[in-house]
Amino acid sequence: MKTIYRTFHSLCGLCLIGALCVSCSDFLDEHTPQGVLSDEQVKTSENAEAMAISAYAIFTSSEDINSSYSMWNFDVRSDDAYKGGSGTSDGDVFHQLEVQQGVLTTNWNINDMWVRLYNSISRVNTAIALLNTSDYGMKQQRLAEMKFLRAYAHFLLKRLYKNIPFVVNESLTYDDYTNLSNRTYTNDQGWQLIIDDLMEAYNTLPETQAEKGRPTKAAAAAFLAKVYLYKAYHQDDANSNKVTSIEKTDLDKVIEFTAPNLYANYGLEDDLHNNFRPEEQYENGKESLWAIQYSRNDGSTYGNLNWSYGLIPPNIPGATDGGCDFYKPSQNLVNAYRTGADGLPLLDNFNQKDYDKANDNADPRLFLTVGIPGLPYMFNKNYMMEESSIWSRSNGLYGYYVSLKQNVDPALIGQYLIKGSYWASSMNRIVFRFADVLLMRAEAYAQLGQADEAVKLVNQVRTRAAQSTQMIGNYPSLYGVKFYVTNYKGSYSKEQAIKIVKMERRLELGMECERFFDLVRWGDAAAVLNKYYAEEVPHCAIYSQAHFTADKDEYLPIPFEQISASNGHYTQNIGNW
Asked: Which residue from 381, 363, 384 is spatially nearest to 372, judged by alpha carbons?
């Protein structure tokens, strides 16, 4: 069931347009006749549940095509993807982020995401405040769900901006809000605040939920593992974003919260592509630990559709007319899927030549992640990709590849792909999936020096990759491509295991908006991205002037508007913005 994510006119109905009230009673004082409802009436079980539903709803209603909570707009900073669109001026503020030049604290996109995510936290805190004063029988479980949602919003903010104010007291007054600082906590302490919310959720949430959009104990465990993994790579030098140490006790927590017994109800899908299909029989499958739920045909004009990917579809005449062709896979990502004669990734040499589908071996995941000229778009032979303006609004500036994980087969237009102001679908967006749990566990083992355990986990993911051919099984015979992916054998050093895990994360999670944040977490961003810029110029000329500045470009600046409104309590991120 997806009902909890539909736009819901709760007591805080103004939340639906972004104007949040501090509490339900404040809203009622302003918007209802005096004396209609007493405080006790406000605190009923029905209203407490309505407010919790409203908190869920904002995680779909508040995001936008330019501020997607999936973070695809901000992943264009990585080596996985080009911005796309018609040219550099189309979404120019994201072009500036892509090449890391000319980014201003006044740019609208820097402030917009900040506002949207803090609006989400405000809605959640309003729900927590009401739940705390209610006698609702589901009170403790709903509070756990709200703490999970609050942790999620803070997590997204912290990955983007690093130094953020934490709003973990739902009873703050207006004056309290205006006195919050974004430097009250160290980087390490900030991660711990998110963990504290998640531990409350983990200790209370049930193992299963009737409504799939509600997080389970396993979802909280996966989320805890992810936050501990970020926390492990310490970046607590106030004058640097460098990783100064890797904390063993945090890695031990990653191992604890990725233990197999916590995921008895979950596992890898038989085919990777099942995670990216809109049909109901594929959604909320065994690999989906927690997903943002979207819906169609729910009584409204467009349902509760996923508009956040609306800029990504290509502009196919007679089909996706109006597609904007953003978030296009890079040549570097395509090359990463090349495999050698042993069926393994070319860890150090994958980018020495471009992938040639007629001659090179490739991991099958390439064809489930990237649409390539000469092959069917979304596995539909009625839409064969080619090097033409149909597949590149920029006439080749951003190449001719197309992302597949966010898109839907044009044959499903009117059913699962719907045109409004932009294209939208009802396809869920998986936030935490089981493959990521395996790879987080593998990364922790690798960093702890247990290389054999790390590689065993990587091999589970690679075994599934080899069998992920339900949609592309005829590609070798029809189009001459060559699948070849094998498992790692033998023993590896700690350094080799770390390199193997990092590459596997890229291959498995390609175009899922994790790559840039992984590079920053590892402390690899400057080295990897400056090498990428230099090597990618022949494929995408915009990178000729690109440069990643260490100790600045890892995080977005604190928006000028927020600095100005903070009464001097916010300090700008380092880097001379």
From this structure: 384
The CA distance from 9 to 16, in Å, is 8
φ and ψ of 500, to 5 deg: -65, -45
Q: What is the DSSP string of 471-530?
A: TTTTHHHHH--EE------S---HHHHHHHHHHHHHHHSTTTT-HHHHHHHHT-HHHHHH
Question: Would you say 547 and 527 are in contact if contact means Cβ atoms under 8 Å apart?
Answer: no
pLDDT tens profile 239-296: 999 999 999 999 999 999 999 999 999 999 999 999 999 999 999 999 999 999 998 8
Q: Where does residue 230 rank: exposed (0-12), middle (13-18), buried (19+ CB within 10 A)?
A: buried
CA distance 229 to 251: 6
Q: What is the pLDDT of residue 573?
A: 97
Phi then psi dihedrals of residue 196, to 5 deg: -60, -45
DSSP secondary structure, 160-224, as one string: HHSS------TT--HHHHHT--SSSS-HHHHHHHHHHHHHHHHHH--S--SSTTS--HHHHHHHH
List the chain residues with pLDDT less than 50: 1, 3, 6-37
Nearest CA to 91 out of 401, 394, 316 is that of 394
Question: Which residue type does 239 have?
Answer: N
CA distance 392 to 530: 25
Measured between its terminal Cα atoms, the distance across the chain in Å is: 46
Report how far Cα 537 is from the mean position of its chain's Cα atoms. Answer: 27
Q: How is residue 232 written in tokens?
A: 């492990």
- pLDDT 10s digits, 237-248: 989 999 999 999
